[in-house]
Write a structure and sequence with these properties.
The structure holds 2 protein chains of 2 kinds. Chain A is of the alpha+beta class. Chain A contains 2 helices and 6 strands; from the N terminus they run αββαββββ. Chain A has a single domain, classed as Hotdog Thioesterase (Thiol Ester Dehydrase, Chain A, Roll), CATH 3.10.129.10. Helices cover 51% and strands 0% of the residues of chain B. Chain B starts with a helix and ends with a helix. The chains are: A alpha+beta, B mainly alpha.
């Protein structure tokens, strides 16, 4: 993992059962890559769908947002900050998204997310985000949110 | 740049962010982007960036807080285009 990765994971304002980031593997001013592995026994598989476990689109969207927007925003703030002990509380506000779902995934899948920055200004981060499982595109879209501290 | 030219380019930018159910046809300068037009405050930065690209100008981050109404957006553009 990259240098800032452990700090980003520490600053994410999520915890089980709603933490969807395992690893941040790449980060620079223009993009981030990270991943999350779907657990075999996620609660939502009991009902989605009956007898055929599929990760809901809303969960895919949340994974994309936690890696592609929130982690990215925290990473960009860390890069900007001269404070090596950056410990400010981060509050992300998801503002808009347009996502198309291309393929489905199920239990145990390792989801990879890559996000490319369109702009980061006045706390608003807007990105193009793609979510894959191996070579298969699961979802892609555009997302925006405000990172406040 | 003439005010009418500014309005002809500015109003379509703003209209794109006005939610359904709000009248986009009768925009007046005193209308507040958030309070009257119900534009999501998170889109103000998007509007600022579109204004900068459309009018080939830069708006200081500090000045963005002063863009609350259509008139205030017109004023900041007119001031920038006067040079």
């Amino acid at each position: 993992m990259i240098d800032e990765a452990s700090k980003i994971l520490e600053l994410l304002p999520y915890e089980e059962p709603f933490l969807f980031v395992d690893e941040i593997s790449e980060l620079d001013e223009n993009h981030i890559k990270g991943s999350y592995s779907i657990k075999e026994n996620e609660y939502y598989f009991r009902g989605h769908f009956k007898g055929k476990p599929v990760v809901p689109g809303v969960i895919i969207t949340e994974i994309m947002a936690q890696i592609g927007l929130v982690s990215f925003g925290i990473g960009l703030l860390l890069k900007k900050s001269s404070d090596k002990e950056f410990n400010k509380e981060i509050l992300p506000v998801f503002s808009n998204f347009h996502v198309e779902f291309v393929n489905s995934v199920g239990p145990g899948a390792k989801i990879e997310v890559e996000s490319k920055k369109a702009f980061f200004r006045l706390g608003k981060l807007s990105c193009k985000v793609i979510c894959t499982h191996g070579d298969i595109v699961i979802a892609r879209g555009e997302m925006g949110g405000v990172i406040t501290q | 740049m003439e005010i009418e030219e500014i309005k002809s380019k500015l109003l379509p930018i703003i209209s794109n962010y006005i939610p359904d159910g709000i009248d986009k046809e009768n925009l007046t300068p005193e209308m507040d982007l958030i309070k009257d037009l119900q534009i999501n405050s998170a889109y103000i930065v998007d509007i600022v960036i579109e204004i900068e690209e459309t009018f080939d100008m830069t708006i200081d981050d500090d000045a963005v807080v002063n863009i609350n109404t259509i008139q205030e957006a017109i004023d900041i553009i007119a001031q920038a285009k006067q040079g």
